[in-house]
Amino acid sequence: MIPTLALAAALGLAPSQPAAGALSLKNVRVTYGELGAPRADDKLLPGDLYFIAFDIESIKVDDTGKVSYSMAMDVTDKTGKSIFKQDPANRDELVPLGGSKLPARAFIAIGLDQEPGTYTCKVTVTDRVSKASQTLTKTFEVLPKGFGLVGLFTSVDDMGSLPAPPVGVTGQNIWIQFLLVGFGRDKASKKPNATVEMRILDEARKPTLPNPEVYVVNNTNDEKDTAVPFRVPLPFNREGNFTVELKATDKTSNKTATVTFPVRVLPSAVR
């Protein structure tokens, strides 16, 4: 099955659109992590994380700024068989800045042994005050096992417990979290022989440093390990718009994989 680590919001737009002023989900996008940069597609390797962010709009807000809603999730395979189901979970949140919009998100953790195929997720969102509901769907594809970088997200802390957007101010640090999966092993030593390079590009798509940072994978805790976690610090030492490029190379199989995402660094003082 696909374990769902958290349910915080819906996963897509229904075919029919709600009337103006009614409960709706807008600005839907797939992201690298809870607050991360946009992701280009809905294709995932086993071991990946599938994050969807969006805004719940026209939700009822009381005089203290509290909103009350519930979510239910059902994930099915291509035959329509339910492989994960979560009953409606009640949630209360605060919107102290006012308005009637609540940013939200959901994610699904794809197991390292997940069968390849197409899956569909349906989520029902209910405003517990107005009783209005919306049922949303999103289809994604799990690819066969392969070499790649998965589970990418950014965090405030090195352990990845506090999510961070790829936006910050000078003097701040964030951490890039991800897994390397699908690497080969030497037939004799049973050890991997892979590297991950991190290169930062500026707005002109030129590297900020002559050489990339290189991380070598030549051993694991167990010969049967199929994934290696990475926690890479990224200090924001100057303002600007940048692109992080992560390139993995498996020297055993001669395979490569690349992931890129934007980073924006703002001045330390609000202007």
Description:
The chain is mostly beta strands and 271 residues long. It has two domains: 6-142, Sandwich (Immunoglobulin-like); 153-266, Immunoglobulin-like, CATH 2.60.40. 0% of the residues lie in helices and 52% in strands. The chain contains no helices and 17 strands. It has strands at residues 6-7, 24-31, 43-44, 49-57, 66-76, 82-94, 101-109, 117-127, 133-142, 148-155, 167-169, 173-181, 194-201, 213-217, 227-235, 240-250, 255-266. It has a five-stranded mixed beta sheet with strand order 3-9-8-5-6, with no helix packed on it. A five-stranded mixed beta sheet has the order 11-17-16-13-14, with no helix packed on it. A four-stranded antiparallel beta sheet has the order 1-7-4-2, with no helix packed on it. A hairpin with a 5-residue loop joins strand 5 and strand 6. The chain starts with 5 loop residues before the first strand and ends in a 5-residue tail after the last strand. Mean pLDDT is 88; it is low at 1-17.
Question: Could you list some keywords that capture this structure?
Answer:
0% helix, Immunoglobulin-like, mainly beta, 271 residues, globular
